Amino acid sequence: MDSVCDINNQTLRSKAGGEEYSPLPLIVILGPTASGKTKLAVRLARALNGEIISADSRQVFKGMDIGTGKDLDQYKEVPYHLIDIVSPGETYNLHQFSQDFYSSFTQIADNGAQPILCGGTGLYIEHILNPRPYSAIPTSTDFKQNLERKSREELLVELKQVALPIDFCVDTSTKKRLARAIEIGLFLKNNPDFTIKRPKQIPFIVLGINPELSVRRERIANRLEDRLNQGLIDEMNSLLAQGVSHKVLQGYGLEYKFCSKYILGELNFVELRTQLTVAIQQFAKRQMTFFRGMERKGISINWLPRGEISQQEIAALKIINSYGT
Question: Positions of the site: Interaction with substrate tRNA (predicted)?
Answer without folding.
Answer: 121
